[in-house]
Design a protein that fits this description.
It is a single chain. With 375 residues, this protein is an alpha+beta fold. It has 2 domains: 125 residues, Phosphorylase Kinase, domain 1; 220 residues, Aminoglycoside phosphotransferase (APH), C-terminal lobe (Aminoglycoside 3'-phosphotransferase, Chain: A, domain 2, Alpha-Beta Complex). The protein is built from 10 helices and 8 strands. The strands form 3 sheets. Strands 1-2-4-3 form a 4-stranded antiparallel sheet, covered by helices on one side. Strands 5-8 form a two-stranded antiparallel ribbon. It has a two-stranded antiparallel sheet with strand order 6-7. α6 packs antiparallel against α9, α6 runs parallel beside α10 and α7 runs antiparallel to α8. The protein starts with 15 loop residues before the first helix and ends in an 8-residue tail after the last helix.
């Protein structure tokens, strides 16, 4: 797939055994005296994720005269040596958001246990949450190449799409004011949540290209977004931010946990719908380039819009704009991932800076009016 091969992306320099020992000592300080917790080993999920550190572990401790075992997940801010994807990782906001969602909705999210803001404990801030059993459509290799979702029938895929959209609609039904979700807003210039969201992306892009290698297709897309700005931005909701099926645990074909909230914010409901559909298009584009059939009729923008209206009673608007915005956002992420690969010696510099964006042709088709994702 162009110059990028996800199977080669270096993710972490974390020493798991040292981290296991430190985590065990930290947990002993959080539990009642005499709990004597043990953590036999740490592991990491396979097939998805390139930003925050995710650690899977079982912890046992004495409680009420018995040994109890909890299946847990730790989320750590990444080490700067690993060339993080994002300039900032606000673990406290993620922890607060998960607790808020559990309190104010039926959206399935993992229960949160502990938040540690002091980096001295493990070398970075982190929080611990409950582990939820389920299966995820993988990124590596992409779920369109092989696996349970590709093997599913049309009714099962529709069930997965509908359940996912219903969960997103339930998230958007939370009143961000009553839920005191203002901490999710971006502290940047802009007179509306969407203006601030886009400005935050401009700042992210400026951070990525601080090395002087600019992305012309990204800058063209920013201009297109400004020229085609939605007339009515609609209601402000809690936006998941990374609303893709690779961030959902499924029991069968129903969501049992929505994961990865580091891109959450406030903005129009359509942002999550555009990202959900674009990310499938991104992987379908990879399948097309690899000569694989993939699932071209899955997570189509019009189908997701109809399912969302049925679930929420709200008809999404300006979806091509939000789909394009999603493509821009992911283009910036891919630019950063290329820089990570260069750092780890897994890629070579290119004379064409836009070649590092695998969905460049999709962006060009959108900007030139040659492709309508609603058709």
């Amino acid at each position: 797939m162009s110059e990028l091969d996800f199977t080669k992306v270096e993710r972490s320099t974390l020493d798991r055994e040292e981290t296991r020992q430190r985590l065990e000592r930290w947990l002993a300080e959080r539990l009642p005296k005499g709990a004597e917790p043990t953590i036999p080993e740490l592991s990491a999920p396979s097939g998805t994720g390139m930003s925050s550190e995710t650690l899977l572990f079982d912890a046992s401790w004495a409680e009420d005269g018995e040994r109890r075992t909890s299946h847990l997940v730790g989320r750590l801010a990444p080490d700067l040596r690993d060339v993080p994807v994002f300039p900032k990782y606000d673990l406290e906001s993620q922890f607060r958001l998960l607790a808020l969602i559990a309190e104010h909705s039926s959206v399935p999210v993992p229960g949160v246990r502990w938040l540690e803001k002091d980096p001295a404990a493990l070398g970075a801030p982190f929080f611990v949450m409950d582990r939820v059993d389920g299966r995820v459509p993988p990124d590596i290799p992409p779920y369109l190449f092989a696996g349970w979702l590709l093997e599913a029938n049309e009714a099962e895929r529709k069930q997965l799409m509908t359940g996912t959209v219903e969960a997103v609609a339930a998230l958007h039904a939370i009143d961000p004011i009553k839920a005191d979700a203002g901490f999710l807003g971006f502290d940047v210039a802009g007179d509306t949540p969407l203006r601030r969201h886009v400005q935050n992306q401009r700042d992210f892009y400026a951070w990525v290209v601080a090395d002087g290698v600019r992305q012309p297709i990204v800058e063209r897309t920013f201009e297109w977004l400004d020229e085609n700005w939605p007339e009515d931005e609609g209601e402000t909701v809690i936006s998941w931010g990374d609303s893709r099926i690779g961030n959902v645990l499924y029991g069968g074909f129903q969501p049992v946990a929505l994961l990865d909230w580091e891109m959450a914010g406030l903005g129009p409901r359509e942002m999550d719908l555009g990202w959900l559909c674009f990310m499938h298009t991104f992987f379908q584009n990879i399948a097309d380039m690899a000569g694989q059939p993939g699932m071209p009729d899955f997570l189509r923008l019009a189908d997701v819009a109809a399912a969302y209206e049925h679930a929420s009673g709200r008809a999404p608007r300006d979806l091509v704009w939000y789909f394009t915005y999603a493509a821009l956002r992911h283009g910036i992420v891919m630019s950063r991932i290329q820089r990570r690969m260069l750092h780890f010696g897994q890629a070579e510099p290119s004379d064409d800076p836009d070649s590092v964006i695998p969905h460049r042709a999709v962006l060009e088709g959108l900007l030139n009016g040659e492709w309508d994702p609603l058709s």
